[in-house]
Amino acid sequence: MRLYFIALQFLTIIPLPFSVRCEERDLGRSMAAFPLAGLTLGALLAATNHILSAILPRGVVDLLLVIILSVLTGVLHLDGLADVCDGLAARGGRERFLAVMKDSRTGAAGAVGLVVVLLLKYQTLLHLPQELKLQALFCFPLLARFSQVQMTVGAVKARIDGLGTTFITGACWRQLLIATVTTLAAAVLFLGIQGLWLFVAAYLMTWGIKAWFLRRIGGVTGDIIGFASELNEVLCLLAILALSEIQVLPIS
Question: Mean pLDDT, to the nearest integer, of 128-144?
Fold first, then answer.
């Protein structure tokens, strides 16, 4: 449980009524509990959706859900998304890319990336069949947090400093195995066999992102891990919507 609370403290701004002992090596080890932290976020979104849906129109509720998720996570991964978009838009080699990502200022490419991702989350939530919305609210934070574990374990460090480096050093295949079992079990529980295919799609995209950045800059950073997480949230929502449109997912 201690590692779960460490994961929750790192991934969210949710206050805990007690202190949790955390050593540097515990950060990497806590990645085994990242999917559980994702499920916690999903549960909070589902509860919020249930309460607000009784008093507000759906479009307003869905926009608030996107905002609430951003606030609960302290915009940590959105910041990584913006930094990576700025780095991708910058001209130059590896050092230029890393320097742009480290700059605290958000450029035009980063701003566009943020707008596109937030709009996609809002629009997919808005168009999801009401009967699938609960499953989606649990699954997309879950799979995105699993992608962070996948991006981290076995990765090459692109920098010698930063939080990403700390996690890469501390996480190992045991954390990935536990996170995989947790994520697969939850995805199948919520979506049946289609949850398995959703997991495979997220896994393949994350693997592609990891491989591309290995070629581009020789490894990954914390910003790149956050970037992959945000893209996986969008992928998961889009996939659930697409499957419902072609009637692969049963709507009761």
Answer: 95
